[in-house]
């Protein structure tokens, strides 16, 4: 028999413990920006999620995004692994790097093509765990396409992440209309 909504009992909850809370978001204006930084990140969440829909002025197809946690931009302090499928076939790589994800390269500054990324930064307030980032990403510019799974570990002495700076890995500026949103995730 059919069940109508009047037959169901719902118990409202005051807070969804797995909810995402917007900390800060940003959309790049005309002319682009060299970097995007979140400082004074509140320590009231279990994890962070960073969503990036971006491009940059690299003069070639595609790029990646370089991370610096708490001002640490030394690539040898990070280790990255990626498995991607792209127009040239599958690829798996790993090595010392703080560049992960995909960012569409648009040398003309044309904001038509974007890379989409979801970065999960786990246990970001822990002072006893090294920090791990996982990423799902994809991009296309109609001549080449890429989808990928990335992971990165920050090898510095375990510390809470209080700031994150992102820069284009090979370009000099993020392009107009690139968007960045940082979310706190409750445990």
Descriptive account of the structure:
It is a single chain. With 187 residues, this protein is an all-beta fold. Helices cover 0% and strands 49% of the residues. It has no helices and 12 strands. The protein has strands at 20-27, 36-38, 47-56, 63-69, 78-86, 89-96, 99-105, 115-122, 131-140, 145-154, 164-168, 179-185. Strands 1, 2, 3, 4, 5, 6, 7, 8, 9, 10, 11 and 12 form a 12-stranded mixed beta sheet that branches. The chain is globular and about 45 Å long. The termini are far apart. 33% of the residues are buried. Residues 1-13 have low confidence and may be disordered.
- Overall pLDDT metric: 86
Helix count, DSSP H or I runs of 4 or more residues = 0
- Cα shape: globular
The biggest sheet amounts to:
12 strands, mixed
* Quaternary structure: single chain
Determine the strand fraction and express it as a percent band.
Answer: over 45%
> Which class best fits the helix and strand makeup?
mainly beta
Number of strands: 12
Instruction: Quote the distance from N terminus to C terminus.
Output: 38 Å
**What's the Cα radius of gyration?**
19 Å
Low-confidence stretches: 1-13
Order of helices and strands: EEEEEEEEEEEE
Helix content: under 10%
């Amino acid at each position: 028999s059919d069940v109508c909504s009047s037959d169901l009992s719902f118990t409202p909850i005051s807070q969804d413990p797995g909810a995402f809370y917007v900390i800060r978001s940003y959309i790049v204006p005309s002319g682009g920006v060299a970097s995007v930084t979140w400082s004074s990140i509140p320590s009231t969440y279990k994890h962070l999620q960073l969503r990036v829909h971006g491009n940059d002025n690299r003069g070639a197809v595609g790029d990646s995004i370089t991370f610096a946690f708490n001002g640490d931009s030394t690539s040898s302090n990070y280790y990255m692994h990626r498995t991607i499928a792209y127009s040239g076939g599958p690829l798996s790589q790993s090595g010392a790097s703080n560049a992960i994800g995909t960012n569409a390269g648009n040398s003309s500054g044309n904001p038509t093509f974007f890379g989409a990324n979801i970065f999960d930064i786990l246990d970001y307030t822990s002072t006893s765990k090294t920090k791990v980032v996982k990423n799902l990403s994809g991009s296309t510019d109609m001549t080449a396409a890429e989808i990928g799974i990335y992971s990165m570990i920050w090898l510095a002495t375990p510390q809470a992440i209080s700031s994150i700076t992102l820069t284009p890995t090979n370009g000099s500026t993020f392009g107009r209309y690139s968007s960045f949103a940082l979310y706190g995730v409750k445990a």
